[in-house]
Design a protein that fits this description.
heterodimer, A: 357 residues, mainly alpha, ABC transporter involved in vitamin B12 uptake, BtuC, two-stranded antiparallel sheet, 2 strands, 74% helix, globular, B: 251 residues, alpha/beta, Rossmann fold, six-stranded mixed beta sheet, four-stranded antiparallel beta sheet, 12 strands, 32% helix
Chain lengths: 357, 251
């Protein structure tokens, strides 16, 4: 089939439309950078934003520099990378399962990863559980923890994929499967707690609440080393995800290997979830909140939805963590509590609204 | 011949669906695949572009075995429009541009954009280019699905009841469009249909299916009261109206 090409009036309108979406992404990036500076400046010691920027850009030495480089910056980066990773993972899961209620948390994958990490820490000796609340769990072997979290997340993912194949990924079914998996793996974690001392139980429970404050520089490096390549892979597959959004038959008739794209998407999303959970604990709803906020603003086109979710996910977790530090200062709340406060109403709203993406 | 279908059979463990289906398709032919519900029309279409893999038989596209071709290779030759189109929260332009997927590298090229624009103009969708598909009517969504199939630049169009949920005006518009594409671009189109009168008005050839097999195939001369009575188990007469045969049920 040969099509005569002609310049028409749509091209400039479409170019302007794309510019709007790119502007949105650029705006999100600017907001994220500004929030990062604010987040670094607030805390038990307030550091003026100007000094934060001077320290980061010009490397100005001093007490502020020590606080920024050793405490605040790893925390802020961990929030950004984990938020971005969870939101992108949620966006990909929603696309490959064609289910708007999918996210690492609602599908029980976070709980599975949490169980895997708890097994590695308590049974395989990959970490130490102490009663000291500020340092409740020390992960000595992050690789073993991550591997165990990943294996457990994979078991949950495998169950989800098998059931989505049998029941055509209907939203109700998938959420019920998520509820069942979350209950199962929470029961497993509770089982481990049952055989622990009272102090250890307190420590494990505290660790299960997601908290970005426990991330050190090596943790941030490993998180980044997983989240960035996975996100790049997702971005490479953006047109495949768009095709899957149109339905399996349409995707396959457009030359997309639907099953392969679905399985790799789920594997990599689960890997991100496993790594985040193994370092920071369970942080709920970012994978739901991030992509849905972006969908409302710029639509379902994965070319923009994925980078948008990446940036908005980072913003949400960064804002949540900053609030967690200042709302009840000097008490620092685990960020997982705040994300659940934001996320649960949205989840209910999506259910009431009838799943429309 | 452009497409040779030879002895294709397909079935599920519990029951067979297609048995020994053979026919050929020439370029610039508009073929209507007719028959009652559950006779295997959709299954046949899905076997042709390997969405389903036939248990027996072969499908040859100019002597190349379709079942041995990769998915992108098939997608560059054949486009498929399914019965139900999923309305997406994407603009009409992006939704149609998606049809360039089998030709795309890392990203869209200016040629992809130009082809999309040309097809949008051709289907009178240019005005709606930046509207979201999930805010459009059923007829418009179906036109978007057909536009997406056309930007694939296929040589064969497989259309599974694309007009089943449309009003008469939209049915005529879409069938007329398919007929024009067939004539202007030499594309072959296979369309499953339920409306015999519209099929008789627009298609060049007819395949009537019964019990998973071809009962009759050929030009308008095969669509007789006897064949229709046998295939659908309904008594009809075929009369002439405005130069076209019209099927009238005897009830």
């Amino acid at each position: 089939m040969h099509i005569d090409l002609q310049a028409g009036p749509v091209a400039p309108r479409y170019a302007a439309y794309l510019r709007g979406k790119r502007l949105f992404l650029a705006g999100c990036l600017v907001v994220l950078l500004a929030l990062a500076c604010v987040s670094i400046s607030v805390g038990s010691v307030t550091i003026p934003v100007r000094e934060v920027v001077a320290t980061l850009v010009a490397g100005r030495p001093g007490d502020a520099s020590t606080i920024i480089w050793n405490i605040r910056l790893p925390r802020v980066l961990a929030a950004c990378v984990a938020g971005a990773g969870l939101a992108v993972a949620g966006g990909v899961m929603q696309s490959v399962l064609r289910n708007p209620l999918s996210s690492p948390y609602t599908l029980g994958i976070s709980h599975a990863a949490g169980f895997g990490a708890a097994v590695a820490i308590t049974l395989l000796g990959a970490g130490t559980v102490s009663a000291h609340i500020a340092d409740s769990v020390v992960v000595r072997n992050p690789y073993l923890v991550t591997i165990c979290a990943f294996v457990a997340a994979m078991v949950a993912t495998g169950a989800l994929l098998a059931i989505s194949r049998i029941r055509s990924s209907q939203p109700e079914v998938m959420v019920l499967v998520g509820v069942a998996l979350a209950a199962l793996f929470t029961a497993g974690t509770t089982f481990l707690q049952y055989f622990s001392s009272a102090d250890q139980v307190a420590a494990i429970v505290f660790w299960t609440f997601g908290d970005v404050g426990r991330a050190s520089w090596p943790d941030v490096a490993l998180l980044t080393a997983v989240v960035l390549p996975c996100t790049a892979w997702f971005q490479l597959n953006r047109w495949n995800y768009n095709a899957l959004d149109a339905g399996d038959d349409t995707a396959r008739s457009l030359g997309v290997h639907a099953e392969r794209v679905r399985v790799t998407g789920m594997l990599l999303s689960s890997l991100i979830t496993a790594v985040v959970v193994s370092f920071l604990g369970i942080i709920g709803f970012i994978g739901l909140l991030g992509p849905h906020m972006v969908r409302r603003l710029i639509g379902d086109d994965q070319r923009f939805l994925l980078p948008g979710s990446f940036l908005v996910g980072a913003i949400i977790l960064l804002v949540s963590d900053t609030l967690a530090r200042i709302v009840l200062a000097p008490i620092v709340l685990p960020v997982g509590i705040l994300t659940a406060f934001f996320g649960a109403p949205l989840f209910l709203y999506l259910i009431v609204r009838g799943y429309r993406r | 011949m452009m497409l040779e279908v030879d002895g294709v059979g397909f079935g599920y463990p519990s029951h067979p669906v297609l048995e020994e289906v053979s026919f050929s398709v020439r370029p610039a032919e508009f073929i209507a695949v007719l028959g009652p519900n559950g006779v295997g029309k959709t299954t046949l279409l899905r076997c042709l572009n390997a969405l389903l893999r036939p248990g027996v038989g072969s499908v040859l596209l100019e002597d190349r075995d379709v079942l041995a071709m990769s998915r992108p290779e098939i997608a560059r030759e054949m486009a498929y429009v399914s019965q139900r189109t999923q309305p997406m929260r994407m603009t009409v332009f992006d939704s149609v541009l998606l049809g360039r997927r089998p030709h795309m590298g890392f990203d869209v090229t200016s040629r992809d954009l130009a082809i999309t624009e040309a097809i949008l103009q051709r289907l009178d969708l240019a005005e709606l280019a930046l509207r979201y598909v999930d805010e459009m009517s059923g007829g418009e969504v179906q036109k978007v699905a057909i536009a997406r199939a056309l930007v694939q630049e296929p040589r064969i169009l497989l259309l599974d009841e694309p007009t089943s949920s449309l009003d008469l005006k939209n049915q005529l518009e879409i069938l007329g469009l398919v007929r024009d594409v067939v004539r202007e671009h030499g594309v072959a189109a296979l369309m499953t249909m339920h409306d015999l009168n519209l099929a008789l008005r627009f298609a060049d050839r007819f395949i009537l299916m019964k019990g998973g097999a071809i009962h009759a195939a050929g030009g308008r001369e095969v669509v007789t009261a006897e064949t229709i009575g046998c295939v659908y188990d309904v008594q009809v007469t075929v009369e002439q109206c405005c130069g076209f045969p019209v099927v009238v049920p005897c009830v």
